[in-house]
Amino acid sequence: MMKILVVNCGSSSIKYQLFEMPQRTILGKGFVERIGEAGASLNHTARGETERRVVEAATHEQGLELVLRTLTEGEGKLLERIDEIAAVGHRVVHGADQFTGSVRITADVLAAIERQSHLAPLHNPPNLAGIRASQRALPRAAQVACFDTAFHATLPPVAYTYALPHMLCEQFRIRRYGFHGTSHRYVSGRAAQLLGVSPESVNLITCHLGNGCSMAAVQRGRSVDTTMGLTPLEGLVMGTRTGDLDPAILFYLGDNGYDIATLNRICNTKSGLIGISGLSNDLRTLGEKAASGDARARLAIDVFCYRVKKYIGAYVAVLGTVDAIVWTGGIAENGWQIRAQCCAGLPQLGIALDEQRNAEVVGREGEIQAAGSRVKLLVIPTDEEGVIAADTYELVQGGLNSEQDILL
């Protein structure tokens, strides 16, 4: 048995889960939030009990130290010694075209991740901070990087190429990379299991809907198209991100006095659901407001669902035959009303929802299609941390070749 810590560092947070492998048993989990701010807090769950306390965490290193102390001290402790952790698996958002799988972290890997930071400035720098803090705190543990972009490394040129001058694309490595890869990978494999077939024999549309949203067309187990692009900004409407928009809008705003930094902030943190509604990036709040007659809240929900429905149609065209549509992520796993609206009016595509089954499947696995639906509709809670733990275990055990998955 091996204990593996999975770490996901955001700009001001650290999420963690402690696994016992190979059983994939979750021993405990939690998160530190508001790192670098007054009133930082730690939530820790172990043995069915959750504790929350205010902490001091000015940096990710201090945040990780708090996590490790929590795992080894107090009522919620899960380890007698910190060196029981044999390996740490890190979520890294952007691996560009250099990483096609998870890898053990070396100095060269760290340098490569840093080189991609300009492509994911909100994500890769905190990912790196978490890795470096973990290396210092756990010098004897193996460190593994698992990339959001890796699952989409199979995109064909027709799907990943932007219609810009070829020289620019080559010089600046501009192409569609895609994200949420560990989630799309997990639910694709799990869907094949539920359907009783091999991943290589099934075509899927996978919908990861949370504060960040993306969809993928999965053909015979391989991602062949996805909604996010060079960065996580493209595609679906998200909590605070624009998704698809005419790039000339940015030129127009630039001509009217908006600088690049401001435009970047608007597109990534002020747009999407919160931008349309002016109220919230949370669909639960928007649903309540829409039910009370708020027109902008209603419009935000309608635009969100319309964009999902439009990509369903596009990916039916890409795949030709679709065996199942998979719903995952916080919104899709719990928001049965959103699923219903996204699937409405699609009988010509062989997609028919059973209203009662759909309303009953909340936060758990289940089939929600009507009896006559040609396409299966599956709700599958994602398990990105479990995928990272499994990859980390295989690499540490020598089951994966870290050299074959990196192109430096």
Structure characterization notes:
It is a single chain. By secondary structure, the chain is α/β, with parallel strands linked by helices. Helices cover 38% and strands 21% of the residues. It contains 15 helices and 14 strands. It has helices spanning 60-72, 107-115, 124-137, 157-160, 166-172, 181-195, 248-255, 260-269, 272-277, 283-291, 295-319, 329-334, 336-343, 355-360, 384-397; strands at residues 2-9, 13-21, 25-33, 41-46, 49-54, 85-92, 103-104, 142-147, 203-209, 213-219, 222-226, 324-328, 366-367, 376-379. Strands 5-4-3-2-1-6-8-7 form an eight-stranded mixed beta sheet, with helices on both faces. A six-stranded mixed beta sheet has the order 11-10-9-12-14-13, sandwiched between helices. A hairpin with a 3-residue loop joins strand 1 and strand 2. Helix 1 packs across helix 3, helix 6 (181-195) packs across helix 15 (384-397) and helix 10 packs across helix 11. It is globular and about 60 Å long. Mean pLDDT is 94; it is low at 401-408.
